[in-house]
Amino acid sequence: MFSMGGTVSADKGGIPNEHANKNKSGNQSDDEDSSDDNKVKQNKGNKEKKEKEKEEKDKEKKEKKEKKEKKEREQGKKNKKKTLVCHIPPGNLDNAHTIWISNKAVAKHLAHGDHVGRCTANETGGGSGSGTGNENKPKVSSVSSPAANGSYHSGNSVSITVSFNKSVTVTGSPKLQLETGATDRFATFATGSGTNTLTFNYLVQAGDSSGDLDYLSTNALTLNAGTIRDTANMNANLTLPAPGAANSLGSNKNITISTTNPVVSSVSSANANGEYVAGNNIAITVTFSEQVTVSGTPQIQLETGPTDRQVNYASGSGTNTLTFNYVVQAGDTTNDLDYVSASSLTLNGGTIKDTATNTNNAALTLPVPGALNSLGANKNIVIDTVSPVVTNVSASTANGAYNAGDTIEITVTFSQAVIVTGTPQLLLETGTTDRQSNYASGSSTSTLTFNYIVQPGDSTGDLDYLTNTSLTLNSGTIKDAATNTNNAALALASPGAAGSLGANKNIVIDAVAPTVTNVSSTNADGSYNVGQDIVVTVTFSENVNVSGVPRLLLETGSTDRYATFVSGSGTSILTFNYQIQVADATADLDYFSTTSLDLNGGTINDAVSNNAVLTLPVPGAAGSLGANKNIVI
Question: CB–CB of 140/240 below 8 Å?
Fold first, then answer.
C-alpha cells in the first residue's frame, strides 16, 4: 500500500505494520547511543594511554637525568681539577650546553658569558610550552643615543643606549665596540640594569674619527665576563641590527667624531691650463681632508719669478676647499705655476680649523712643489709678463770663407718663443757697403733665421753685425708667443762680445776680386843681352791661386816677347820669366799695355774663387815695371 506520507510496511495479512516500523526506529536509536559510548570509552583510553606514555617518557627522562647527574657527580669526584659550566657559544646563544672544563679555563669561559653549573631549561630551550624557549630570550630592538646630533671631539663623552624587547639584568661590565677610525673604541656599560634600555658610555679619544658614529658589527655587543639576562635567567641575544641599517646607531643618529687636524690633500686651480699675462686672475684651490672654517685672510705664496707673490684667501669657509685669488703682476713669470715650498700656506693672523668642532687647527703643510697633488703637478699654467730678449746671435752656416752669391744663415735666439710679422732685418758689417739680412723663418720658436746673400765687393775677415742696435723691425713685429702682447727687446750683445755673431762664428766674406798692385823685377837694373833671363814679378792685392800658364806681354822692340808664369801660386806675388831673343831691344823694359797680363787658358783667383782683375798700372806709371826698374835690353 501506498501512503501520502511515504512508504508504510505491512504484515502478512495486509495490515500496516506500524509496530514493526516503530521497533525498527527504536532499535536504530539504541545503536547510535551505543556508538557514542564506545567513542567516549575509546577517547578515554587514548588519553590514558598518552598519559601513561608521557609518564613513562618523563620517568625515562628523569632516570636518564639522574643517571647523567650521578655520572657527572662521579666524574666530578674523579676530576677534582675540573668545573662544570654552562657553555654559551658566542654568536650561537641557542646552542647552550653543560660541559666539564679545566679549572684553569674557567675565567676565560666566564669572560665570554658562560657560568658555573648546569645550563637551565630556559638556556637549553627546554622550558614550558611547545617552542624551544629561544623566542623568549631578550633581544636587541634598537641602538641609539641621547646625545644630540653633531660633532664631538677629544674628551667629550657620548652615551649609547641599547634597547631590548624586555627588561634585562646586567652583571659585570658588558661593552659595545664602536667604529672610531684607526682604533675602534669600546663604550662600557654604565646604567640600566633591571630595565629594557642599557646605557654605555664612550669617551672620545685623541685620533678618533667618524663621519657617522656606529658600532663595528652586529656582534659588537659583548659580555666582557658579565651577563645580560632576563628575570627567568635567560641569556639575552646580543645580536645588533646591521651597522647603518634600520634601528642601528648610525641610522638613528648623526654623530660626528672629529679629533684629528684637517690636512691639505691637494692644491690645484679652477683655471684652465694655458698662458696668462699681467692683469689675469688665477683661482688657486687648496683642498683639505675635511671641512674647515676660516677666519681672517690666510695666504699662499706662489713662485712667480724675480718676485714671489702672496695670494690672499677669497672663499670656501665651511667646505673642504678654499680658494685663493692671484692677480698676475707685470714682471711675473713661470713656465709651470706652483707655490714656493711645502710651507707656503700661512695663516697671516687668521685661522683655519675643522668645521666639525672648530677646535682642531688645520695642518698647513702642502705637497712638495712639483710632486703628486701639488699645483704644479695638477695644472700646467704658464705666467708670462716678461718681454723676450735676445740671448745669442750665431749662424747655421759653417765657419769658412764665402764670396758673392753665397747665402749665410744668421740665427737670433730669444729668451722665449716669439711670433714674427713682416720682415725684420739684421744689419751686417760687410766692408764698404753694410748689408741687411732679412728675416726668413722661425716664428713661434725661440730662434729666428735671417738670410744674407753675399754681394760683389762685400768683405770682412770675421762676419758680425754692425752695432748692438742692428736688429730692427722694418715695420714688422716680434712678440712673445705665449701672449702675443709682449714686444721683444731687440738689443744685441756688442759686436765681438760673448753671444755675438763674431764671437760665436768665424765666417770670412770675400767678394772682392784680387787686383794687381805692382809690377817689378828681381833682376838688378842694368843692360842684358841675348840668352839672359829677366824675372818679372806681378804683385796682387791678396793671395791668388794659379792654374795653367798665364803670361805677360813685354815691349821688346820690333817683336814683343811674352814672359811666362813660373811660380808664386798661393801667394800674392807671381813670377814670370822672359829670355832675351836676338834683335830684342828696349831702353827701359816694360810691358806692352795695361792689358798685357792674360790667362792664356789658365786661371788666377783668390781663396774663395774670386777671379783676379788683370788690369796693370799704365806702362811707365807708378807701380809699372818701367817705373820700378831700369833694365836695358
Answer: yes
Dihedral of the alpha carbons of 139, 141, 145, 146, in degrees to the nearest 10: -100
Summarize pLDDT for 597-629 with one digit per residue, the tens: 999 999 999 988 899 999 999 999 999 999 999
Region at 46 (left for phi over 0; alpha for psi -120 to 50; beta for the rest): alpha
E strands along 146-272, which residues? 150-152, 157-171, 175-179, 186-191, 195-203, 209-210, 214-215, 221-222, 227-229, 255-258, 264-269
Give the angle subtended at the CA of 606 by the CAs of 605 and 612, to the nearest 5°.
45
Separation in Å, CA 201 to CA 125, 148, 160, 167, 553: 33, 14, 6, 20, 130
Give the whole-angstrom CA distance, residue 230 versus residue 137: 7
CA dist., res. 100 & res. 117, Å (int): 9
Close Cβ partners of 104 (under 8 Å, ≥ 6 residues apart): none
Q: Strand, helix or coil at 557?
A: coil
- List Cβ neighbours of 152 (8 Å cut-off, separation of 6 or more): 158, 204, 255, 256, 257, 258, 357
Structure-block grid coordinates of residue 614: 788683370
CA-based angle 369:370:371, to the nearest 5? 95
List CB contacts of 588: < 8 A, sequence separation 6 or more. 620, 626, 630, 631, 632
List, for residues 460-512, the tens digit of each pLDDT value.
Answer: 999 999 999 999 999 999 998 877 778 999 999 999 999 999 999 999 998 88
| CA–CA dist 245, 155 (Å, integer) | 28
Contact call for residues 502 and 496 (beta carbons, < 8 A): yes
Helix (H, G, I), strand (E, B), or coil: what is residue 624? Answer: coil
Three cell numbers at 246? Answer: 634600520
Residues facing 310 on adjacent strands: 301
- Pairing mode, strands 464-465 and 425-429: antiparallel
The pTM score is 0.46
User: What's the confidence (pLDDT) of residue 124?
Assistant: 61
Q: In 468-551, where does DSSP find H-type helix?
A: 501-504
Side chain identity at residue 446, one-letter code: S
Across 439-465, b (16+ Cβ under 10 Å) vs e yields: beebeebbbbbbebebeeebbbebbbb
Whether 523 and 535 have beta carbons less than 8 Å apart is answered as yes
What residue has cell string 675602534? 184
